[in-house]
């Protein structure tokens, strides 16, 4: 039977510098979703990469005394290294300086122009170089950019415009008839009430004041402005073509199932991108999820403020899975999460070292001590077994439900509830007492077997969130039963199996 397909993308990172942990959160979140979908049996295509054109990059390259291409080659490499250091399993890392992408973007721009969706005009307004965004006087906050708070410059230049205003009603109707298109709900309301219902403005889609971009094929003094260039990556790299047949890969995976993006670029993905696709006569992505920010001590991370932390530094200090767990678990569904070193260390100690690491270590220690390292399926029950097994099996539905709703932190809570309950089960059944009475040998075997099987269930899920830790657990319990299907049954672990060598999963951090 052919697998169901699932296409997930992150926003492509702007190649102007090294991404901090707040930026890196998105790729870790996308990776957990992609891995979980693969675990469920989906044929997953997971795309990420870098956005490499624009005035900001041209200026930074000039300041560094190198060409813009040299500059983005370096910074794109830095971003890829960060994505790799947090163990992300992307299928494609794309770059917008790719010649094929640039050619298709030119074809897309020409198609819009030929069909009357783009026209030549003049732009006058306030421009923020950092955000690469134009603003009207009324949109400024205290005379500064409403997004980043930096100074803006008055700009006036010839430019091509996209007739967004023409499609305002179409987009409003589409969003109203596709209630899950924008998530979370609060973000959808914000987009509808603040941008769409008041009526859309036409969008500036070319620039003449800098040259680092994709030239407009029929008017090369203009370069194609960021949104048509960057947003098109979601279709160009899978193989969309304007003037010839698109690739089998594109036909297979488009429309995307999920665009995962930061809430600060939501309007570009939920207004400009749907209209761009509509004008290409392409189906829209099934869902766009605007995730919240990871704050630093309750303040937005900013290199200019100096309140940033970097994933590679954190991985060196705490290990990759500890960083992944913190990023996934400490971010609420719809509100901003918070980052601090104290919180990271506290979470590592309470959840990873205590609940998970201590459980695995205790269980293996008891099997070695009482059964010479052999796990035997017991034939007698204790009064606590059924309730414990029910907790483990109930987690199957709750974890899947939460993952389907993109409530990743909640899914992790459901998963760690298995480990919490297992620790309680040890206290309830007191294996050290059962071990003293030869008549309780079968009960002891049952308890130890149930603990190993519960740990196996948990490790299967951990493959999506903490893949290295999951692999270590499978090795320690000496099990190859890692499939999602095996979660439907409690009791798969093979009796008379000798466990592997116990290892510490997470060390406690002493303050």
What structural category arises from helix and sheet content? alpha/beta
Query: How much of the sequence is in beta strands?
Result: 5-15%
Give the termini distance in whole angstroms.
53 Å
- How many β-strand stretches? 18
Taking all residues together, what is the mean pLDDT? Answer: 93
Give the uncertain stretches in residue-range form. Answer: none
Mind describing the biggest β-sheet?
7 strands, parallel
Q: How much helicity do the residues have? A: 40-55%
How would the global form be characterised?
elongated
Task: Give me the Rg, rounded.
Answer: 26 Å
Helical stretch tally: 18
Could you describe the 3D structure shown?
The protein is of the alpha/beta class and 511 residues long. 48% of the residues lie in helices and 14% in strands. The protein is built from 18 helices and 18 strands. It has helices spanning 21-40, 55-64, 68-85, 99-114, 168-177, 185-196, 226-231, 233-236, 248-253, 266-279, 311-318, 320-329, 341-371, 385-404, 408-429, 431-434, 441-465, 467-477, and strands at residues 5-10, 13-14, 43-51, 92-95, 118-128, 133-135, 153-162, 182-183, 203-204, 206-207, 214-215, 223-224, 258-262, 288-291, 294-296, 337-339, 374-375, 497-498. Strands 1, 2, 3, 4, 8, 13 and 14 form a 7-stranded parallel sheet that branches. The protein has a 4-stranded antiparallel sheet with strand order 6-5-7-9. A hairpin with a 7-residue loop joins strand 11 (214-215) and strand 12 (223-224). The longest helix is centred in the C-terminal third of the chain and has 31 residues, at 341-371. It is elongated. The mean pLDDT is 93.
């Amino acid at each position: 039977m052919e697998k169901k397909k699932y296409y997930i993308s992150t926003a492509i990172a702007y190649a102007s510098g090294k991404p901090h942990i707040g930026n890196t959160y998105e790729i870790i979140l996308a990776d957990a979703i992609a891995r979980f979908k693969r675990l469920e049996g989906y044929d997953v295509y997971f795309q990420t990469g870098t956005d490499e054109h624009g005035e900001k990059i041209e200026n930074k390259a000039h300041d560094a005394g190198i060409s813009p291409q040299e500059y983005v080659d370096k910074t794109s490499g830095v971003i890829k290294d960060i994505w790799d250091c947090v163990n992300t399993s992307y299928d494609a890392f794309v770059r917008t300086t790719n010649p094929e992408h640039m050619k298709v973007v030119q074809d897309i721009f020409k198609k819009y122009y030929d069909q009357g969706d783009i026209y030549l005009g003049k732009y006058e307004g306030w421009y923020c170089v950092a955000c690469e965004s134009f603003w009207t006087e009324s949109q400024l906050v205290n005379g500064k950019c409403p997004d980043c708070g930096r100074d803006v410059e008055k700009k006036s230049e010839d430019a091509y415009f996209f007739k967004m205003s023409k499609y305002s009603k179409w987009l409003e109707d589409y969003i109203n008839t596709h209630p899950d298109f924008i998530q979370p709900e609060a973000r959808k309301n914000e987009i509808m009430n603040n941008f769409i219902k008041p009526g859309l403005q036409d969008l500036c889609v070319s620039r003449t004041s800098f040259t680092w971009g994709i030239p407009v094929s029929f008017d090369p003094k203009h370069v194609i402005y960021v949104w048509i260039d960057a947003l098109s990556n979601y279709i160009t790299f899978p193989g969309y073509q304007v003037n010839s047949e698109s690739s089998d890969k594109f036909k297979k995976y488009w429309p995307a199932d999920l665009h995962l993006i930061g809430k600060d670029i939501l309007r570009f993905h939920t207004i400009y991108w749907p209209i761009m696709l509509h004008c290409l006569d392409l189906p829209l992505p099934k869902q766009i999820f605007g995730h919240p920010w990871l704050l630093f001590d309750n303040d937005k991370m900013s290199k200019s403020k100096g309140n940033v932390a970097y994933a590679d530094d954190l991985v060196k200090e705490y290990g990759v899975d500890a960083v992944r767990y913190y990023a996934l678990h400490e971010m609420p569904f719809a509100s901003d999460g918070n980052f601090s070193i104290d919180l990271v260390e506290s979470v590592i100690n309470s959840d990873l070292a205590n609940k998970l690491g201590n459980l695995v270590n205790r269980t293996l220690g008891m099997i070695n001590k009482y059964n010479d390292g052999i796990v035997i399926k017991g034939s007698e029950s204790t009064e606590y077994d059924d309730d414990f097994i029910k907790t483990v099996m109930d987690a199957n539905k709750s974890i899947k439900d939460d993952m389907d709703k993109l409530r990743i932190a909640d899914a992790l809570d459901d998963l760690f509830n298995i480990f919490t309950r297992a620790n309680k089960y040890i206290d309830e059944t007191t294996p050290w007492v059962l071990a003293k009475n030869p008549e309780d040998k079968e009960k002891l075997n049952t308890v130890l077997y149930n603990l190993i099987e519960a740990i196996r269930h948990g490790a299967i899920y951990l493959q999506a969130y903490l893949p290295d830790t999951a692999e270590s657990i499978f090795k320690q319990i000496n099990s190859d039963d890692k499939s999602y299907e095996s979660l439907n049954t409690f009791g798969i672990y093979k009796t008379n199996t000798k466990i592997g060598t116990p290892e510490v999963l997470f060390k406690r951090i002493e303050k």
